[in-house]
């Protein structure tokens, strides 16, 4: 009939996930017997079976008996550099550990960093981490950019800068890199279909002077980049800043005009009440790494106070040198236990809150709000987790099973940017054996020429 417009037939979805128990996160309720549809790199629809049209799909994934949820977001880590240092120096204080690590970092080369990057990306992929916030303290990011073409996770790559202490030798590099950072932005920022963002990562208040922090702030403002730094990490840092500047690390950076909502501050275990007020007023976000903080005796984040102040907090694993694994299941479980113990309140930090910290909270903490939860229009970064296992049974509560019983190897399928990167624990197009062998050879060669 002429003159009457008919609605176009809906385009078939590229991927439909059916028969799923869906945890959308972001404060949204679980969906039983749910369906998720994906078109291109985004989620099209999500809901109960019968509410979402799954009749036409290029590919159907049956998630019966499994949990579909956002991929984990790792709000603070060091991949390549720390993969090479894992297990090398244990049972020592933080600053002793940092000094020994620097002996090896000075001998990094691009080939070694490439294989270390691949190894770290594969480890995260197999643990269900789809997005990560890299503080690249190897001071050479190009190898990781290359590795991300092979294992295309979502990432913010923070270029590391420092100009004093054990890191004084990279002072000239740091200043030159900041002065020419626009070239790196033009070449790499928001590349890979917007998966790859660049950031700025001044190392810490004990390794960067006031002028370097000010220059980082100028560059961040000029190019609209996020900042990722260590802050109030340990008693030694507190003592250094007090002795040199007569205040706390948070107050010092605030006085420099450095702290804003584009800053992700890792650790923050040494905060006083005024520090917390400043972080809340400036909108500074925090990456909480409870496992490494406990292991290095760096203290425990005052998480309850931060939550009450309305500060955005997300979980991070830190690097494999200080935590030894890239596993958000471990991080969630330990966070739940240590904060119940420290607060004396078993009702604090319930299982659903821990899942939020590892997904939507971590995404907000690293300023990547396009991921971390499942909803129409969000990026299709999705994991499928099998909790029908002996070590998780019986499953009376899905959130409890995920936080306190599940393991990294229970992640069966991983989708990033709408692409299936892992299916039933298999990584198409990736030779894990070659990566493991080449990485191991490179790591031992590095050790032998460094220590």
Question: Secondary structure elements and their pairing?
Answer:
Blueprint: E1 13-22, E2 31-39, E3 42-48, E4 57-62, E5 66-70, E6 72-77, H1 80-83, H2 94-105, H3 110-126, E7 129-136, H4 142-150, E8 154-161, H5 171-179, H6 181-188, H7 191-194, E9 196-202, H8 210-223, E10 226-231, H9 235-245, H10 249-255, E11 263-267, H11 273-282, E12 285-288, H12 290-295, H13 303-308, E13 313-315, H14 328-343, H15 351-358, H16 360-365, E14 382-386, H17 398-405, E15 411-416, E16 419-422, H18 432-450
Parallel strand pairs: 1-4, 1-5, 6-7, 7-8, 8-9, 9-10, 10-11, 11-12, 12-13
Antiparallel strand pairs: 1-2, 2-3, 5-14, 14-15, 15-16
Helix pairs in contact: 3-4, 3-18, 14-15, 15-17
Radius of gyration: 22 Å
Major β-sheet, in short? 8 strands, mixed
Fourth-tier CATH superfamily name of the largest domain = Metal-dependent hydrolases
Spans with pLDDT under 50 lasting ≥5 residues? 1-8
Quote the CATH topology of the largest domain.
TIM Barrel
Shape: globular
Tell me what the CATH architecture of the largest domain is.
Alpha-Beta Barrel
Q: According to CATH, what is the class of the largest domain?
A: Alpha Beta
Structural class: alpha/beta
Helix percentage range: 25-40%
- Hey, roughly how much beta strand do the residues contain? 15-25%
**pLDDT averaged residue by residue:** 93
Number of strands: 16
What is the terminal separation in angstroms? 82 Å
How would you portray this structure in words?
Helix 3 crosses helix 18. This protein has helices at 80-83, 94-105, 110-126, 142-150, 171-179, 181-188, 191-194, 210-223, 235-245, 249-255, 273-282, 290-295, 303-308, 328-343, 351-358, 360-365, 398-405, 432-450; strands spanning 13-22, 31-39, 42-48, 57-62, 66-70, 72-77, 129-136, 154-161, 196-202, 226-231, 263-267, 285-288, 313-315, 382-386, 411-416, 419-422. Strand 9 (196-202), helix 8 (210-223) and strand 10 form a beta-alpha-beta unit. Strands 1, 2, 3, 4, 5, 14, 15 and 16 form an 8-stranded mixed beta sheet that branches. An 8-stranded parallel beta sheet has the order 6-7-8-9-10-11-12-13. The chain has 451 residues and is α/β, with parallel strands linked by helices.
């Amino acid at each position: 009939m002429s003159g009457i417009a008919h609605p176009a037939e809906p385009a078939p979805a590229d991927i439909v996930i059916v028969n799923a128990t869906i945890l959308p996160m972001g404060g949204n309720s679980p969906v039983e017997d749910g369906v998720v549809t994906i078109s291109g790199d985004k989620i099209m629809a999500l809901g109960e079976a019968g509410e979402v049209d799954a009749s036409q799909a290029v590919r159907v994934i049956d998630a019966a008996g499994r949990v579909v949820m956002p991929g984990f977001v790792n709000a603070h880590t060091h991949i390549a550099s720390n993969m090479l240092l894992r297990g090398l120096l244990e049972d020592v204080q933080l600053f002793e550990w940092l000094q020994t690590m620097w002996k090896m970092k000075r001998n990094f080369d691009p080939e070694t960093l490439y294989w270390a990057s691949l190894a770290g990306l594969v480890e995260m992929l197999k643990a269900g981490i789809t997005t990560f916030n890299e503080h690249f303290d190897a001071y050479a990011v190009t190898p990781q950019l290359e590795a991300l073409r092979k294992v295309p996770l979502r990432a913010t790559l923070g270029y590391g800068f420092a100009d004093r202490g054990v890191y004084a030798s990279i002072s000239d590099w740091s200043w030159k890199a900041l002065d020419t950072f626009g070239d790196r932005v033009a070449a790499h920022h928001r590349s890979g279909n917007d998966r790859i963002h660049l950031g700025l990562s001044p190392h810490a208040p004990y390794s960067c002077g006031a002028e370097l922090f000010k220059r980082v702030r100028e560059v961040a403002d000029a190019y609209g980049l996020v900042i990722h730094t260590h802050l109030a990490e340990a008693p030694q840092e507190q003592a250094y800043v007090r002795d040199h500047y007569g205040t706390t690390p948070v107050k010092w950076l605030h006085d420099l005009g450095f702290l804003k909502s584009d800053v992700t501050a890792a650790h923050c275990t040494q905060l006083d009440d005024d520090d917390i007020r400043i972080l809340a007023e400036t909108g500074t976000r925090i990456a909480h790494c409870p496992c490494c903080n406990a292991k290095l005796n760096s203290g425990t984040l005052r998480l309850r106070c931060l939550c009450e102040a309305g500060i955005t907090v997300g979980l991070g694993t830190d690097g494999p040198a200080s935590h030894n694994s890239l596993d958000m299941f471990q991080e969630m479980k330990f966070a739940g236990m240590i904060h119940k113990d420290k607060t004396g309140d078993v009702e604090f930090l319930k299982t659903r809150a821990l899942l939020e910290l590892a997904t939507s909270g971590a995404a907000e903490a690293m300023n990547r709000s396009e991921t971390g939860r499942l909803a129409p229009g969000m990026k299709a970064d999705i994991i499928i987790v099998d909790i029908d296992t002996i070590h998780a049974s019986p499953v009376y509560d899905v959130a409890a099973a995920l936080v306190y019983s599940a393991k990294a190897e229970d992640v069966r399928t991983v989708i990033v940017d709408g692409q299936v990167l892992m299916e039933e624990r298999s990584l198409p197009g990736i030779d894990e054996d070659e990566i493991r062998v080449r990485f191991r050879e490179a790591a031992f060669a590095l050790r032998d020429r460094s220590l």
